[in-house]
Amino acid sequence: xxxxxxxxVTDGFGLHTATALLATGWRIxxxxxxxxxxxxxxxxxxxxxxxxxxxxxxxxxxxxxxxIVFGANxxxxxxHAQAVPALDTAAAVAxxxxxxxxxPANQQVYDPEDGSVFDESARxxxxxxxxxxxxxxxxxxxxxxxxxxxxxxxxxxxxxGAHSGCGWSGALLKPVRRxxxxxxxxxxxxxxxxxxxxxxxRTASCLLARREELPGFAAFQFSGYRxxxxxxxxxxxxxxxxxxxxxxxxxxxLNPLSPAVPLARELGDMRYLWEHDxxxxxxxxxxxxxxxPHTPLPQALIAAGLVVxxxxxxxxxSYVQTT
Length: 323
Ligand SMILES: NC(=O)c1ccc[n+]([C@@H]2O[C@H](COP(=O)([O-])OP(=O)(O)OC[C@H]3O[C@@H](n4cnc5c(N)ncnc54)[C@H](OP(=O)(O)O)[C@@H]3O)[C@@H](O)[C@H]2O)c1
Fold this sequence. Notes:
Blueprint: E1 3-7, H1 12-23, E2 27-32, E3 46-49, H2 55-62, E4 67-70, H3 79-97, E5 100-106, E6 117-118, H4 129-146, E7 150-156, E8 158-160, H5 169-172, E9 173-176, E10 179-184, E11 191-196, H6 197-209, E12 217-221, E13 225-228, H7 229-240, E14 243-248, H8 261-270, E15 279-280, H9 283-288, H10 297-303, H11 310-322
Parallel strand pairs: 1-2, 1-4, 2-3, 4-5, 5-7, 6-15, 7-12, 8-11, 10-14
Antiparallel strand pairs: 9-10, 11-13
The structure holds NADP nicotinamide-adenine-dinucleotide phosphate.
């Protein structure tokens, strides 16, 4: 049986990939700082207590595994200082043990001045602080691949998914009395790239199954949904049966005294991603996998818990009216 060590299993990519791998017969180990934080859906997996910052902890937890799934994502505002060191530890262990490491990368490594459609061979030329760090993380992994690790880097758009801690979708879409409100940080017609986390996780699981056939550093792209805010609003409306109002992202949230200031800073650094279309060409992924997992957007929004489905609302109202 294959075994994967998942770092960052409580949320986001780590949680979804652990779930996807369990469903395909993998054994999962988690490295957790707080063992009590293990999500209920993963009870029964092997838990190692420790920190991803400690090479001894990671080496101990990784002994005998086939792969490391790297889902750790230090919270803002510590992300800039901790993201590369956290990955460095896992990369060093993957090198020495000759393991495959799966890394969820993103589109911030590209420069929109270079065009709007990017494949894996496009030059990496980040134009933001976050993007530069992403590039450093990918460079570190390329180095690891030359030192004996196998790397699978999967570049995606912004995550949509339940337990997606730092996903934008939950910050921009909120239920209101008559339906939903969708905040748009860029023009309503801007086409943004989104990725359904369960689909991304199943894709990572499929790639892991093919790991022996892949090059030492295997970069792939997951094209996901390319949606304008109008299209996203329509998908919310289809899923919920409710009206959706589009509102510009409020300027008051950019106030330095606002409690939402980390979000505002993030928005400033990433503003270009809400103004330029960055389409991730996935031809390479389609050449390797027979089928790329894809859930229709309205279903993905429901599964992510962002939208209550129309049928449930009807049931709720008929219950209220008859009681
Ligand atoms: N979010 C997106 O839209 C998106 C899109 C593309 C790529 N990515 C990439 O995907 C990766 C994971 O992001 P995510 O959004 O899935 O993360 P997330 O939902 O924020 O989850 C972060 C995970 O990292 C763990 N963690 C935080 N700080 C840690 C530390 N210092 N050491 C060990 N674990 C730590 C957390 O564990 P605790 O519960 O213990 O804190 C949690 O399990 C990141 O590299 C991110 O750049 C994200």
